[in-house]
């Protein structure tokens, strides 16, 4: 009897323990709070004791120490350890337990977001990049008994009114998003530039289901459909809308929501839930006229700030840029097509002209609505609250070029920072055509350096290794400059000098000059000239101790072309296309001086910002940094057919894809290193022989051999970290601070956080009709006035209660951080009695995200 | 009857008869072996080809892949500023070329049926070839390395856990079979249903308790980070990281396992010959070894062999929960990527291992159990 009772108690205990274990999160939070409280009490007690027992002067000295500037160079932390964690929930738990310091992944789980926000030990950064839309099938179906309502652009346009984007953002993604109507990212510069146009249209297309349903009803009847018992029918059958709903993320709820709205409008909805692989053959490959689908829940992502979204309209609405059957079914009005093609082809000469094209395209894209945009998703990357890092508005932490330079424990120098990502060491690393996974590129970037540093908040560039730059642009091209480090000028004609290198002869291993290649004088759209510091070659060394030399630059010029040349031993068909493309717009490059190193570059490719037209030739390749000597070892293995730089060539030749850091490649690379060292091999000797001496070659190979002996990898950079440990199976790698890195650790501390402005409007809640009305606008950052020199524009819009734009203009600058909006007597006189909304948009030069603030007033 | 036998003297009959019996046995074994090898081979061929077909959805994966290639190549236009800045016709041509190259790389320019037989031929000859999308941890495309690099991690974890589980279960089962109806026996029976939950389920609780709350054991992974630089440090760290997963496996399986073996042993313990042995006054140890374990040996060996083969597949969810870099995770990834060579490679090795094991077990049974006869219908246990 006793045993039976005991068994019963034991069973109960098991059940209880499982229930309790399931509730551990609550227990854990409580425990964390206890710890925090304890810490606070201890601090208070200590302070009191100090005040009571120590002289006041001493206390003041302790409390307000004189800030001592840091003398640390390179990275703030001693080590970066990357580990793998592909579950965001698990990562947050590990952050809470202090097992990791940063989870460098963009998470969009609203519940997890709240968990992080509520935990004082954690903090996070927000980033943008992914955005969702509904893609409509605009085709008339081959089966004439099936009516596709979305073949009618007015019904597609009406979708904008029947969906509530605010509901989606608030209820479906828990506030992690900004509503959008356009194919422009609302955090990128082009949206900020045309924010006034956007806001007017956003008001016009605000959620209005009655209006939307009215339009749908009218158009459906015009198309021959009839509404029977609240259901739209055609040819005697209900009209079925097939929605292909992606199931991997919040698009499942978005698709369901749309289905509900369409059902409310009288349609019969067939929700087909599919993963990417299941959906792709239907919406990407099927013929739209087959009628296999009507709507698809689309999603897109961008990992870098785009400063020119002009081609987006053509890409998303036109038949020209996206070679799939769906886009071949797109037909646009001639006006829309003309506008987006002009934007795509940069067929404008002034920014004002571009503005008009944008306004037209934005307006007509809504009338077309082959794609109805929903919101720009906000993601977050959690980390411990004692960590700070400069992050990228689009690329977050993992995509931030400044990550390695700025990551640190607050108020501390040194330490081991543990960074978790969903993947580590995903594919082979080699600078020419290695892994481009973001999980690999994050540590790769930390080991390298750049000539110019991408601005994480605007997408512009800042000088990093270069001393200065000038850009000459052909007159008539609307190129502007924002930052003062670039010298921009215009010329009617930019002539490429005859002695500029323009192509590569793989047989004779010499450059082909412009004079040799072109029969007549060649001109270019852009000439960029960069000048490096005079002490560049004395201050910068590769991780193996070899000093940087001009040969590293010239090697980059050569291999970039050689790899695409059929007669080259390292020819790669997969690279040939991009080399050909490159030669199509590159008109020449020339080393003007070696002391200081000065390089001119001539090209027909141009960007709207002068900063982006600077070509540095810094030896950082698409997939990492490389010195001439470690790349030479790789090239020898590639040429011998034992390894291949690219995956394509490796697959075609059935050899290993070259990895500089692990695997079977290492032994092969070591063999060729020994061979190169034995022969004192100078690559591309007919050209590089002028830049490399035999002694230097021998020293470099010896350095690399010693490096391989010590670190067991061939990965070299000049960045703030070097590759210290690689454990592929264990899924971890360690980077060690580079003690020879010359720059101060705080060089990029200005990018500690984005300078997002705060806009406040002050004024009378009631204005007098026929009298001038004035409103004060305050633009601040952390309660300090936002300097006018850092503001691009402050503009305003006035809407009536129906959302109709009444007037708009630029706010007047009064002082730093203070602006005035004045509505003239004529304007107020034209305003009918009622409520109005004044909306002010501030656009900063330092951050691409504009700030909007609204103020409501009435006219009696 | 052969001429030689006819001419043989009567007194010499015994030897040729013995020889004949031996020869017959050899022929029987050889014939049995040939038939068995042939049927197992056919089974492997069918199994592997089915795997090829299933992994490729009968060729539909080609359609999926083509769609994905076009989608991803086109999407590159959105992220590559140089591509965006190119003249439209140049950009379109470039995109088409990228699509062509990728399709060629994956062999999509050849009919699926042709490729399916090539996969089969390569698999049967153990030419595991190259993965299409996956790389091994160290960066190799060779399927052999993708599998071999992960094998030690899987083996060290699951072999440790399963061996502990296997032998401790048998030990406990024998103990319980001797103490049928005891308190401990009832406890084990009561806890047996807890094995309905898989190891990863208990793993989550163990992680929450020992890693998140108590912070005494690591959350997962194979070793600590930064990885200890000394061998001793590495081993200690590995052992520390094995505590939770091994515990999870044991907790999830030991009760049901002990319960099953205990029942099994009980059945044999109640045989008449065991009662007779008890009556003869043999010790418990002798009874277990000679009268209980001996007849159950074929079952134990089968179970043990299949356990060892089972290690080959790893455990995807379990390894994911503990972030353990084993084969299960790799194969799970391969399935997600439709990487046919890796899926087929893993399957064919498993198939061969299973076939060889089944084949050898037939002979081992004959060795350990006198009632079993190779290739004959007589003497097989009922």
Architecture overview:
The complex is a heterodimer of chains A (860) and B (382). Chain A is of the alpha+beta class. Helix content of chain A is 34%, strand content 25%. Chain A has 28 helices and 42 strands. Chain B folds into two domains: 28-122; 150-338, MetI-like fold. Chain B is 74% helix and 0% strand. Chain B is built from 15 helices and no strands. In chain B, 32% of the residues are buried. Chains A and B meet through helix 1, helix 2, strand 1, helix 4 and helix 12 of A and helix 3, helix 4, helix 5, helix 7 and helix 8 of B.
CATH level 1 name of the largest domain in chain B: Mainly Alpha
What's the quaternary structure here? heterodimer
Q: Which second-level CATH architecture of the domain at 130-377 in chain A applies? A: Roll
Q: Tell me about the largest β-sheet of chain B.
A: none
Number of strands of chain A: 42
- Helical proportion of chain A, percent range: 25-40%
* Dominant shape of chain A: globular
Uncertain regions spanning at least 5 consecutive residues of chain A: 18-64
Mean pLDDT of chain B, rounded to whole units?
82
Report the CATH C-level class of the domain at 130-377 in chain A: Alpha Beta
Strand neighbour order, sheet with most strands of chain A:
5-12-4-11-9-10
């Amino acid at each position: 009897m006793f045993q039976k009772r005991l068994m019963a108690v034991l069973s109960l205990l098991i059940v209880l323990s499982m229930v309790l274990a399931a509730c551990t999160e609550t227990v854990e939070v409580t425990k964390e709070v206890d710890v925090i409280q304890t810490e606070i009490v201890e601090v208070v007690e200590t302070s009191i004791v100090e005040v009571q027992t120590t002289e006041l002067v001493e206390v003041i000295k302790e409390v307000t120490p004189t800030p001592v500037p840091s003398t640390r160079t390179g990275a703030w932390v001693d080590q970066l350890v990357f580990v793998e964690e592909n579950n965001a929930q698990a990562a947050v738990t590990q952050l809470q337990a202090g097992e990791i310091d940063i989870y460098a992944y963009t998470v969009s789980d609203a519940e997890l977001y709240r968990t992080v926000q509520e935990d004082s030990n954690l903090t996070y950064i927000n980033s943008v990049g992914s955005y969702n839309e509904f893609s409509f099938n605009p085709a008339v179906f081959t089966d004439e008994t099936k009516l596709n309502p979305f073949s009618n652009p007015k019904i597609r346009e009406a979708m904008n009114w029947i969906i509530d984007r605010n509901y989606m953002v608030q209820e479906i993604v828990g506030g992690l998003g900004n509503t959008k109507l356009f194919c422009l990212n609302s955090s990128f510069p082009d949206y900020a530039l045309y924010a006034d146009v956007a806001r007017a249209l956003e008001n016009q297309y605000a959620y209005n289901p009655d209006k939307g349903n009215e339009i749908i009803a009218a158009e459906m009847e015009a198309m021959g459909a009839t509404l029977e018992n609240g259901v739209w029918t055609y040819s005697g059958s209900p009209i079925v809308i097939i929605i292909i709903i992606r199931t991997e993320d919040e698009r499942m709820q978005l698709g369901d929501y749309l289905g509900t709205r369409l059902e409310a409008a009288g349609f019969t909805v067939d929700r087909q839930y599919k993963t990417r692989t299941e959906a792709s053959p239907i919406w990407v490959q099927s013929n739209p006229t087959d009628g296999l689908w009507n709507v698809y829940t689309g999603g897109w992502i961008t990992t870098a700030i785009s400063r020119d979204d002009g081609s987006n309209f053509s890409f998303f609405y036109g038949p020209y840029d996206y070679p799939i059957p769906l886009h071949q079914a797109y037909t646009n009005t001639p006006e829309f097509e003309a506008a987006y093609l002009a934007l795509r082809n940069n067929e404008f000469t002034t920014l004002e002209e571009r503005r008009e094209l944008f306004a037209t395209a934005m307006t007509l894209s809504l009338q077309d609505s082959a794609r109805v945009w929903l919101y720009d998703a906000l993601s977050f990357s959690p980390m411990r609250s004692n960590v700070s890092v400069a992050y990228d508005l689009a690329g977050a932490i993992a995509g931030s070029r400044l990550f390695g330079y700025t990551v640190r424990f607050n108020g501390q120098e040194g330490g081991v920072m543990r960074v978790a990502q969903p993947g580590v060491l995903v594919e082979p690393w080699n600078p020419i055509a290695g892994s481009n996974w973001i999980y690999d590129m994050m540590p790769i970037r930390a080991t390298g350096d750049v000539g110019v540093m991408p601005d994480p908040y605007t997408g512009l560039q800042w000088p990093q290794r270069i001393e200065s730059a000038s850009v000459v642009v052909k007159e008539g091209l609307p190129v502007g400059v924002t930052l003062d480090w670039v010298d921009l000028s215009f010329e009617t004609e930019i002539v490429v000098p005859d002695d500029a290198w323009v192509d590569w002869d793989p047989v004779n291993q010499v450059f082909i000059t412009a004079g040799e290649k072109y029969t007549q004088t060649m001109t270019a759209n852009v000439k960029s000239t960069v000048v490096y510091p005079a002490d560049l070659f004395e201050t910068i060394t590769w991780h193996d101790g070899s000093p940087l030399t001009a040969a590293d630059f010239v090697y980059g010029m050569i291999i970039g072309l050689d790899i695409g040349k059929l007669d080259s031993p390292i020819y790669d068909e997969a690279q040939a296309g991009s080399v050909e493309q490159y030669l199509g717009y590159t008109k020449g490059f020339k080393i003007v001086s070696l002391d200081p190193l000065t390089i001119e570059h001539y090209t027909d490719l141009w960007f709207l910002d002068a900063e982006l037209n600077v070509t540095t030739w810094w030896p950082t390749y698409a997939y990492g940094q490389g010195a001439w000597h470690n790349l030479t070892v790789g090239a020898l293995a590639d040429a011998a057919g034992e390894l291949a730089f690219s995956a394509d060539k490796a697959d075609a030749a059935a050899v290993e894809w070259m990895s500089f850091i692990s695997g079977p490649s290492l032994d092969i690379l070591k063999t060729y290193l020994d061979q190169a060292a034995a022969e004192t091999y100078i690559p591309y000797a007919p050209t590089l022989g002028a830049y490399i001496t035999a002694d230097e070659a021998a020293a470099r190979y010896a350095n690399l051999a010693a490096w391989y002996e010590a670190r067991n990898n061939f990965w070299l950079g000049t960045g703030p970290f070097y590759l210290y440990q690689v454990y592929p199976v264990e899924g971890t790698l360690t980077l060690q601070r580079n003690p020879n890195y010359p720059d101060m650790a705080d060089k990029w501390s200005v990018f500690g956080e984005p300078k997002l402005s705060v806009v406040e409007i002050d004024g009378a809640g009631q204005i007098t009709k026929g009298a001038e009305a004035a409103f004060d606008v305050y633009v601040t950052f952390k309660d300090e006035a936002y300097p006018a020199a850092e503001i691009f524009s402050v503009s305003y819009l006035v809407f009536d209660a129906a959302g109709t734009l009444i007037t708009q203009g630029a706010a007047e600058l009064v002082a730093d951080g203070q602006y005035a909006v004045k509505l003239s007597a004529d304007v107020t006189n034209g305003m009918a009695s009622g409520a109005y909304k004044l909306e002010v948009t501030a656009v900063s030069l330092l951050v691409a995200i504009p700030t909007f603030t609204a103020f409501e007033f009435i006219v009696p | 009857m052969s001429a030689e036998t006819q001419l043989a003297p009567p007194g010499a009959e015994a030897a040729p008869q013995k020889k004949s019996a031996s020869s017959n046995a050899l022929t029987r074994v050889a014939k049995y072996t040939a038939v068995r090898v042939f049927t197992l081979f056919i089974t492997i061929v069918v199994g592997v080809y089915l795997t090829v077909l299933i992994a490729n959805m009968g060729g539909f994966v080609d359609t999926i892949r083509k769609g994905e290639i076009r989608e991803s190549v086109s999407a590159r236009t959105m992220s590559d500023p140089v591509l965006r800045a190119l003249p439209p016709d140049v950009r379109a041509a470039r995109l088409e070329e990228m699509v062509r190259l990728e399709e060629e790389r994956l062999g999509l320019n050849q009919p699926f049926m042709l490729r399916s037989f090539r996969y089969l031929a390569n698999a049967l000859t153990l030419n595991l070839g190259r993965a299409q999308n996956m790389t091994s941890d160290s960066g190799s495309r060779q399927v052999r390395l993708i599998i071999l690099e992960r094998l030690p991690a899987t083996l060290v974890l699951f072999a440790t856990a399963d061996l502990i589980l296997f032998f401790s279960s048998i030990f406990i089962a024998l103990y319980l079979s001797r103490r049928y109806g005891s308190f401990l026996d009832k406890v084990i029976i009561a806890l047996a249903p807890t094995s309905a939950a898989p190891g990863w389920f208990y793993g989550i609780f163990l992680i929450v308790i020992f890693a998140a709350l108590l912070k005494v054991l690591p959350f997962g992974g194979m070793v600590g980070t930064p990885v200890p630089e000394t061998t001793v440090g590495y081993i200690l760290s590995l052992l520390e990281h094995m505590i939770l997963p091994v515990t999870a496996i044991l907790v999830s399986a030991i009760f049901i396992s002990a319960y099953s073996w205990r029942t099994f042993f009980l059945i044999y313990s109640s045989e008449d010959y065991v009662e007779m042995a008890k009556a003869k006054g043999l010790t418990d140890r002798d009874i277990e070894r000679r009268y209980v374990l001996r007849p159950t040996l074929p079952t134990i060996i089968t179970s043990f062999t299949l356990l060892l083969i089972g290690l080959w597949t790893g455990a995807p969810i379990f390894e994911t929960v503990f972030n353990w870099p084993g084969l299960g995770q790799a194969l799970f990834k391969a399935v997600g990527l439709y990487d046919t060579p890796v899926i087929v490679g893993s399957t064919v090795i498993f198939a061969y291992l299973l076939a060889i094991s089944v084949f050898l077990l037939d002979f081992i049974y004959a060795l350990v159990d006198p009632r079993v006869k190779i290739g004959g219908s007589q003497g097989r246990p009922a």
